[in-house]
């Protein structure tokens, strides 16, 4: 059975199976593959035999009228119907199971945005692009998106769920083979669609518990040889702020924008994030990530009231890569008068997830 | 093929091609045959454009990283490829060309019911095509042909012109469908009862019903997107209080039936081709005729199988999944009946027949992968991967284009009165079928591996199969150019075909080749079903003039 599984899996170019659901889905895949191949080739071989058997002998040959008896059509309908419905009878309960997370599953919030995945563990750390889960324990994903539709796809789990802006969707899995598996975005989301890659790290449960404990305490888990085993960009969010400050300086943002509250050629960045901003034309908008990014790319689309005559900001479309824009956004977010420190923190920032 | 020995009228006898001269006579023609020929030229140009973009896409995917273009160019290109192939070729080609040319000939009519509206449809096509293509190139539309919101309503690129273009193309599609429905109902010659209607006409009738009923929904949806994009209405964008899934429901309510607009005419074409090539009446005529209507009907209730991973309710997914099986069932009925038609036939392995076999092969595998997808759970793995891309290209390219080529080769002598080189045609057919396989079988495997579609770059483990696919696509392109070459050559120096080079007993062969302007000297009286070959050659002589 195991050997047959491996043989068919390789034959069909399927990736590793990291969960029981993936294995069972593959069994259905094999069943569908084998039966439909048999059916297809039987039909096509019959047609081919007829082609050789009934060659035209002269141009105006006559042929008998052969009309079907009801039994023929009944077989033509019955055979595929039984086969197709058997696929459905196996597949549909599997699908329902995937849509019904078990009680007691660990929740992880997943947020897709152009072009990265953000994961948040309730009461625990956030991470970008790397999702660490314990092997053998069910994990429920609550997905949403900050901009357009993305789709969270882990081929090794044979599992995919769209992340929609403005609402939550859910799915779940129970990965049981420790390892690292790629995460893709399966719903086209623009320029960085194919670069919106993540990694699912399935850790032995005990190791994961230790890692989570360390994360909660705020220090990095060190491997036995003393090197950090954290994924490289898990502390990206902390350092993103620093990157953002540097990029803003290089791009010349500070020629017009201040970070200390003084109004200059452009609006100050201090306390900008999350504020309701009055725009030219009377509209009010909340300065969220989307607005900030838009203002870098299309600065004259939504000008803050009072800056119309000075709408001199050039577009950074094409000059700022997505991560750069994100870094500047994060930098702006860190500029708060009510922040404990204006300085970026080292290591992951723990933002407790509140509410739904 | 050999010219009919019975009669080889000179090419310069009066016919629809030489009845009037000059560009003006073509631009203002109301003749259904000339309109069919204009559609041939226009849709083939669309196919050429879409094909060039396809080749550029395959070229880009030759290596994992950037190869010949940047991500923006790639995204624009697959949008162009999809929109052009679907709206400028797949939907209008067979109805526009063969539907216009042969429905009146097959029912013994002089023309379609509304010749002026028929001409209007050509201009709507032309106008819509120009607006869509120019709009996409000028505005750099990068949404993909599906225009999913809120991407399409928030992208910085221009989307409105292509929506307008598709809207106008949709209008052309509606009036064509309406025209055919009325034509079939009101203009059948004496003796052409519903149960003697050629199967191509049945398929076109079913297609027309979908065109008339589904296309308006596309129009509304595109207008709503345009309103949101241009005036800032909050219909689909959640940031403005809209619902992005609503768009998907509306879009697929048209676009899923639309795939039957693309495949049903193809099924009609091969039904004609197989009967003629095997000299056999259709085994299970009623089953094939009614299964077209069955597909048209059920096709309206399966759109939700595009949304299995969107978060729609499990109940809805189950209903859409099981209904999708019935589309496969009706298709299977056709496949079995076509196969059984070969039984005790007198088969001539000509170019149209080779394309018929290719069609059968691609439809069987394209169809069965569709069945596998509608098992619901397997779709969770395959949704939005190359498996789906390969699946619908097997049906659309492998199915519809095979049938298109089968019809083109089968009816070419009728349309233009000339024969082409059978040897070249067979060589090209084999090349095209091999090329299709080499292009799309690797894409099934890529989908199994988990490569999502619309990927500009990809991890390295996907490269080998991508290279194979690109190699196949080049083979395919070469095959198409071969076809173009010998068909054009046949117009210049082909032998006169005679009225019925295939000795076919389809009604359309009762006219001279090319047909005269009025089709029939007087309204024909039909006294038997199409493609009945049980009696001797006398039957053909009787209908030769």
Low-confidence stretches of chain A: 219-238, 340-356
Total domain modules of chain A: 3
Classify the secondary structure makeup of chain A into a structural class.
alpha+beta
Number of strands of chain A: 12
Report strand order across the widest sheet of chain A: 3-2-1-5-8
**CATH fold-level name of chain B:** Cytochrome C Oxidase, Chain A
- Largest sheet geometry of chain B: none
| Residue fraction in strands of chain B | under 5%
Shape by Cα distribution of chain A: elongated
How would you portray this structure in words?
The complex is a heterodimer of chains A (356) and B (545). Chain A is an alpha+beta fold and 356 residues long. Chain A has 3 domains: 2-56 and 66-99, Helix Hairpins, CATH 1.10.287; 106-230, Cupredoxins -  blue copper proteins (Immunoglobulin-like, Sandwich), CATH 2.60.40; 237-334, Orthogonal Bundle (Cytochrome Bc1 Complex, Chain D, domain 2), CATH 1.10.760. In chain A, 35% of the residues lie in helices and 17% in strands. Chain A has 7 helices and 12 strands. Chain A has helices at residues 2-11, 20-53, 70-99, 205-217, 236-251, 289-297, 322-334, and strands at 106-113, 116-120, 126-128, 130-134, 139-145, 150-154, 159-163, 169-173, 179-185, 198-203, 276-278, 284-286. In chain A, strand 11 and strand 12 (284-286) form a beta hairpin. In chain A, helix 2 (20-53) packs antiparallel against helix 3 (70-99) and helix 6 (289-297) crosses helix 7. The longest helix of chain A has 34 residues, at 20-53. Chain A is elongated and about 95 Å long. Residues 219-238 and 340-356 of chain A have low confidence and may be disordered. By secondary structure, chain B is mainly α. Chain B has a single domain (35-543), classed as Up-down Bundle (Cytochrome C Oxidase, Chain A), CATH 1.20.210. Chain B has 17 helices and no strands. The longest helix of chain B has 35 residues, at 244-278. Chain B is globular. Classes of the chains: A alpha+beta (356), B mainly alpha (545).
């Amino acid at each position: 059975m195991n050997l047959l599984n491996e043989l068919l899996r390789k034959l069909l170019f399927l990736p590793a199976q990291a969960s029981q659901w993936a294995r069972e889905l593959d069994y259905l895949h094999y069943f569908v593959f084998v039966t439909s191949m048999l059916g297809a080739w039987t039909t096509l071989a019959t047609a081919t035999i007829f082609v050789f058997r009934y060659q035209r002998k002269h141009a105006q040959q006559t042929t008998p009228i052969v009309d079907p008896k009801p039994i023929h059509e009944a077989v033509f309908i019955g055979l595929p119907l039984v086969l197709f419905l058997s696929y459905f009878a196996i597949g549909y309960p599997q699908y329902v199971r995937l849509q019904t997370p078990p009680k007691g599953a660990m929740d992880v919030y997943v947020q897709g945005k152009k072009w990265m995945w953000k994961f948040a563990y309730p009461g625990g750390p956030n991470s970008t692009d790397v999702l660490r889960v314990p092997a053998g324990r069910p994990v429920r994903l609550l997905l949403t998106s900050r901009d357009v539709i993305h789709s969270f796809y882990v081929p090794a789990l044979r599992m995919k769920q769209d992340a929609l802006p403005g609402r939550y969707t859910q799915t779940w899995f129970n990965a049981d083979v420790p390892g690292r598996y790629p995460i893709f975005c399966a719903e086209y989301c623009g320029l960085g669609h194919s670069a919106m890659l993540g990694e699912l790290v399935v850790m032995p449960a005990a190791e994961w518990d230790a890692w989570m404990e360390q994360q909660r305490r705020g220090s990095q888990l060190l491997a036995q040889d003393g090197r950090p085993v954290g994924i490289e960009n898990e502390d990206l969010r902390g350092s993103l702020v620093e990157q953002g400050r540097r990029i803003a300086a290089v791009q010349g943002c500070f020629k017009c924008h201040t970070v200390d509250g003084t109004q200059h050629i452009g609006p100050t960045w201090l306390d900008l994030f999350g504020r309701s901003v009055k725009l030219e034309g009377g509209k009010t908008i909340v300065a969220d990530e989307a607005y900030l990014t838009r203002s870098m790319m299309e600065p004259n689309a939504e000008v803050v009231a009072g800056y119309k005559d000075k709408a001199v900001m050039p577009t950074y479309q094409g000059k700022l890569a997505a991560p750069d824009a994100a870094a500047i956004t994060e930098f702006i977010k860190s500029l708060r008068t009510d922040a404990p420190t204006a300085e970026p923190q080292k290591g992951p920032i723990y933002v407790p997830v509140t509410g739904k | 093929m050999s010219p009919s020995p019975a009669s080889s009228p000179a090419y310069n006898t009066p016919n629809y091609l030489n009845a009037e001269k000059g560009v003006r006579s073509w631009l203002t023609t109301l003749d259904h045959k000339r309109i069919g020929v204009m559609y041939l030229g226009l849709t083939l140009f669309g196919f050429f454009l879409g094909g060039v973009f396809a080749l550029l896409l395959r070229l880009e995917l030759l290596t994992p990283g950037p190869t010949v273009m940047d991500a923006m160019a790639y995204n624009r290109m697959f949008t162009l490829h999809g929109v052009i192939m679907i709206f400028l070729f797949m939907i209008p080609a067979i109805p526009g060309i063969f539907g216009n040319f042969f429905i009146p000939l097959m029912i013994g009519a002089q023309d379609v019911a509304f010749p002026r509206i028929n001409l209007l449809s050509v201009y709507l096509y032309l106008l819509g095509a120009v607006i869509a293509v120019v709009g996409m190139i000028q505005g750099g539309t990068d949404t993909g042909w599906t225009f999913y919101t809120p991407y399409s309503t928030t992208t910085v690129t221009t989307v409105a012109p292509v929506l307008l273009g598709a809207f106008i193309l949709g209008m052309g599609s509606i009036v064509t469908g309406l025209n055919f429905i009325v034509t079939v109902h009101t203009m059948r010659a004496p003796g052409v009862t519903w149960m003697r209607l050629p199967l191509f006409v049945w398929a076109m009738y079913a297609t027309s019903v979908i065109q008339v009923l589904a296309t308006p929904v596309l129009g509304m949806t595109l207008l709503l997107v345009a309103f949101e994009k241009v005036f800032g209405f909050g219909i689909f964008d959640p940031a403005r209080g809209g619902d992005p899934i609503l768009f998907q429901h509306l879009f697929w309510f048209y676009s899923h039936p639309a795939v039957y607009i693309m495949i049903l005419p193809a099924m009609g074409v091969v039904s004609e081709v197989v009967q003629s090539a095997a000299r056999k009446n259709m085994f299970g005529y009623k089953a094939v005729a009614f299964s077209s209507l069955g597909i048209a009907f059920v096709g309206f209730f399966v759109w939700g199988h595009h949304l299995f991973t969107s978060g729609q309710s499990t109940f809805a997914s189950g209903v859409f999944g099981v209904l999708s099986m019935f589309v496969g069932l009706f298709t299977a009925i056709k496949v079995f009946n076509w196969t059984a038609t070969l039984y005790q036939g007198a088969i001539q392995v000509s170019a149209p027949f080779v394309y018929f076999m290719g069609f059968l092969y691609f439809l069987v595998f394209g169809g069965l992968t569709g069945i596998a997808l509608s098992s619901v759970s397997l779709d969770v793995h395959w949704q939005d991967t190359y498996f789906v891309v390969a699946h619908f290209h097997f049906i659309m390219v492998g199915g519809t284009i095979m049938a298109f080529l089968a019809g083109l080769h089968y009816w070419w002598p009728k349309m233009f009165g000339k024969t082409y080189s059978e040897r070249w045609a067979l060589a090209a057919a084999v090349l095209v079928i091999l090329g299709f396989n080499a292009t799309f079988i690797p894409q099934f495997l890529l989908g199994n591996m988990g490569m999502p579609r619309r990927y500009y770059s990809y991890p390295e483990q996907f490269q080998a199969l991508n290279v194979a696919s690109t190699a196949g696509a080049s083979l395919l392109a070469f095959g198409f150019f071969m076809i173009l070459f010998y068909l054009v050559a046949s117009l210049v120096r082909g032998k006169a075909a005679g009225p019925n080079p295939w000795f076919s007993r389809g009604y359309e062969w009762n006219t001279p080749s090319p047909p005269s302007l009025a089709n029939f000297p007087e309204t024909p009286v039909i006294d038997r079903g199409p493609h009945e070959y049980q009696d001797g050659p006398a039957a053909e002589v009787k209908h030769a003039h």
